[in-house]
Amino acid sequence: MRFHCTFGVNFWTFESFQPNTAAMANREARFNQTVLVDTTPMPDHIPKVEEIGATSAPLLSASYFIGDRCKAYNDDFMKCKDESNGRGEFDCLKEGRKVTRCAASVIKDINTHCLDQFKAHWECLENNNHQLWECRRPEVQLNSCVFDKLGLKKTLPGAPEGQVPVHLRPKQKYAQYPGPQW
Amino acid sequence: MGVPFEALLPYGIIITMFGVSGYGLHYVKRFANDGKKARWNRDLWDRQMMERDQRITGSFRGQSSNHQAPTGFDVSNPWKIESRIY
After folding, report:
1. Exposed site from A13, A60, A92, B36, fewest CB < 10 Å?
2. Rounded alpha-carbon distances, angstroms, from residue B4 to A88, B1, B8
3. Under 8 Å between Cβ of A100 and B73
4. Which residues of B fall within a CB distance of 8 Å from A41?
């Protein structure tokens, strides 16, 4: 169903702004009024996986390390979803379990080896609206600890060549503290 | 020639009242955010992550770095129910 707004402009006719959704499950967005919590567990023929218990700030703090160790699994999962013509929720459960287990292993390792630096970083993020540029000092310590103990390195995918990546510049634009953060 | 002190009383009242409302809002916001600074400029991703935080820790601002979700987390995901118009 097309939604025509009253300003005389039909936003939905700008097809070029929308991604190619021919192969994806596509339906229009609606506001939801209520939620339903269905506590029926998954059927037995679907293998179980331990869900990740880390919340938003620790996940953001560990995200680049998860990406470093789990890149192959993540890419595999995205490729599977891409190729399954909208049935990815059913067909890619095996790949999804691998993604979950890999990310959980990274978080478990960071908790084991770099708990103090990890905690300092995600508490800083949680207190600064989850903005990475406010927390470079704990981030540098976390990065060096994780590289020493686990061998995982933070790299920014798609960063331009020949420049210092933004997380390695001592002075951070837009940060509340204007000087060098470490 | 000196200014009579009565002329400064309104300024005292103004400063006090702005101070009360400012500090009051500060403490109310901190109280509502579990003693942390309030989140701002949240988008859909941030909001749904905060809902997930609430499912894990019981509070929208609570944080936990466990690698293992608490019991019942895998069945506490709410379905968003929409009203149909056709």
Report:
1. A13
2. 79, 9, 8
3. no
4. 74-75
- Residues of A in CB contact (< 8 Å) with B are 1, 30-42, 50-59, 104-105, 107-108, 111, 118-119, 122-123, 126-130
Would you call A127 and B36 a contact, using CB atoms and an 8 Å cutoff?
Answer: yes
A109 within domain boundaries? yes
**A27 φ/ψ angles, rounded to the nearest 5 degrees:** -150, 160
ipTM: 0.86
Asked if residue A66 is part of any domain, the answer here is: yes
Q: Which residue is closest to B38 within chain A, CA to CA? A: A129
**Which residues on chain A are in Cβ contact (under 8 Å) with B40?**
129
pLDDT of the residue at B86: 63
Do B81 and A35 count as a contact with CB atoms less than 8 A apart?
yes
List chain A pLDDT tens, one digit each, 182 residues. 334 333 333 344 443 444 545 545 567 777 888 899 999 998 999 999 999 999 999 999 999 999 999 999 999 999 999 999 989 988 999 999 999 999 999 999 999 999 999 999 999 999 999 999 999 999 999 999 999 999 999 999 999 999 999 999 989 989 998 888 87
The alpha carbon of residue A3 is apart from the nearest alpha carbon of chain B, in Å, by: 13
- Asked if residue A103 belongs to a domain, the reply is yes
Which residues are B79's β-sheet partners?
A: A36
Enclosing domain of residue A144? 56-168
Chain B interface residues facing chain A, Cβ-Cβ under 8 Å?
36-37, 39-41, 46, 49-50, 52-53, 56-57, 61-70, 72-83, 86
Distance CA A154, CA A150 (A): 12
CA A151 to centroid of chain Cα atoms? 20
